[in-house]
Amino acid sequence: QVQLVQSGAEVKKPGSSVKVSCKASGGTFDNSVISWVRQAPGQGLEWMGGIIPMSGQANYAQMFQDRVTITADDSTSAASMELTSLRSEDTAVYYCVRGYCSGGACYDWVFEIWGRGTLVSVSS
Amino acid sequence: EIVLTQSPATLSLSPGERATLSCRASQSVSNYLAWYQKKPGQAPRLLIYDASNRATGIPARFSGSGFGTDFTLTISSLEPEDFAIYYCQQRSHWPTFGGGTKVEIK
Q1: Any chain B CB within 8 A of the CB of A30?
Q2: Tens digits of per-residue pLDDT, A43-52?
Q3: Cβ contact B29:B6 at 8 Å
């Protein structure tokens, strides 16, 4: 079973940027979309955007459109998410997640395989 | 953006009882709705996709139903490990999640 291994926790200052990485272990991205979802303390889940590793085409949620960049390298099954102009409200656990694949079909926006999450803390 | 509203916010039940969770969409999402279980310190776990299909390895006590704007997740008989927060999520348009329902031990 493929696992997604994420980079470690980060502490950032307001106004700075953070880049979180994600790599498939024991498998590949398997032609599915890689998304990033975050959860702030005590809050719900928020989809930030996703990328089709084979083509490099990325799509972003409107609220993050101006601040997030998602990239991926299909040959190495690695992906990353960069968030700029950080503010305290960006303090959250950031998850890398792969779409659900079953019976030869992949459902891009069904989130099956999740990384363990990366805590990003933004504080002055 | 499609808004998903989950109810109730909290459900207090005992092990062995039936849990019924609701998710309502601000516009039709066809059957493109999924359910996830979230426990503290853990990543979410996919339970149901496309309204009624159980994901790989999900026990039969979890079932989903609905179409259009109204959806239900049912846990037929609560096991101790089922006490958690449950989120619905649509993929009819760019993905959005509901606010969650906490299933707690009564």
Answers
A1: no
A2: 999 999 999 9
A3: no
